[in-house]
Automatic annotation (TrEMBL):
Single GO MF annotation: transcription corepressor activity
Matching InterPro entries: SCAI
GO biological process: DNA-templated transcription
Pfam family name, one: SCAI
Descriptive protein name: Protein SCAI-like
Length: 322
């Protein structure tokens, strides 16, 4: 084997291995305690190894034909894994990590600039925007949500113009859902509104309230699990996250950090000039969440989110959540 072939072949082998492991955990339910946890550890390890390898051998891989959207897809899978872990554990650090990876994909324009005739890549980009919107919604990153909505709308219009034989009705419905969601939710319409999450910057710690402290001294109660669901028809929702469940979810969590309550601009600038992330940089800080979450805060209760479940499904979730 020629020396210049070793790096791309090793990279492809790592991609195939990581994808196989990802397929085993992708459809696991997001409820229940320690559901398939050993599989997730293997998948994370595989993708972290893959990510590090493409960082260390970027020039050789680009020379061998590596596309920028392939880098974005790897980062997107890692973000998807982190979000899945958040849904299973309700730990804010996983949600923050997912946001970090999705935001990096957007800012570095990994999917932008791909050939318009590659429908497969266009669908990958559409799914990326939809996933990033969900993460940004839950984190209350209102400015980023608006930026991504515009990106999604522009991409759908572009796809409809360039792939006339393909029906994008489902994606148009996704666009309509998110627009309706942000138009009705007061978090998006009232910039000064307080977050639903309990925020250490704005609220006192529960144990400092006298009657809570007295009760806590006698009997320790911990809120560990919750099942959030909705049955109403024609609800305001995005994907399977209805507006009422979205608000309940946040009322049962601590704000990840004070920095996330501040409304940062979505597009970064340096010396008044927008930063160009379209270069070949593949560096994404994978330890930022350690600085964005407060270890002194109590853990969030686990939450199973169900959309119009059947009775048997509800009983199964209740049983596995115990």
């Amino acid at each position: 084997m020629a020396e210049e072939d070793v790096v791309p072949k090793t990279f492809r082998a790592l991609v195939e291995s990581a994808d196989r492991k990802f397929a085993r955990v992708r459809d696991l339910p997001s409820y229940g305690r320690a559901q398939g946890q050993h599989y997730f550890q293997k998948v994370f390890k595989a993708y972290m190894r893959l990510w590090k390898y493409q960082q260390e051998h970027r020039p050789e891989l680009v020379k061998a034909g590596l596309n920028r959207w392939e880098i974005g897809e790897i980062a997107g899978r890692i973000g998807q894994l982190y979000f899945g872990q958040y849904m299973r554990t309700s730990e804010a650090r996983f949600l923050v990590e997912a946001y970090i990876f999705y935001e990096a994909i957007l800012k570095r324009r990994y999917f932008e600039g791909c050939g318009v005739k590659d429908l497969r890549v266009r669908f990958k980009e559409l799914r990326f925007y939809a996933r990033f919107l969900l993460v940004s919604l839950i984190l209350n990153r209102t400015e980023m949500v608006k930026v991504v909505v515009e990106k999604l709308r522009a991409l759908i219009d572009d796809c409809k113009a360039n792939f006339r034989e393909t029906n994008f009705k489902e994606w148009k419905l996704v666009e309509q859902e998110i627009l309706r969601f942000i138009n009705i939710d007061t978090t998006f319409t009232i910039p000064s509104s307080r977050p639903f999450r309990y925020c250490a910057m704005l609220n006192c710690h529960p144990n400092s309230v006298p009657y809570v402290a007295r009760f806590h001294a006698k009997k320790v109660l911990k809120f560990r699990d919750a099942i959030l669901m909705s049955y109403h028809r024609n609800e305001v929702k995005f994907a399977e996250l209805t507006l009422d469940v979205y608000r309940m979810l946040q009322c049962l969590e601590w704000e990840p950090s004070g920095s996330f309550y501040q409304k940062h601009p979505a597009e970064p600038k340096e010396n008044g000039v927008a930063v160009d992330y379209s270069g070949a940089s593949g560096l994404i800080d994978m330890n930022l969440a350690a600085d964005m979450t407060d270890p002194a805060l109590p853990p969030n209760p686990r939450k199973a989110i169900l959309y119009r479940p059947s009775l048997t499904h509800l009983i199964a979730v209740s049983y596995k959540s115990c």
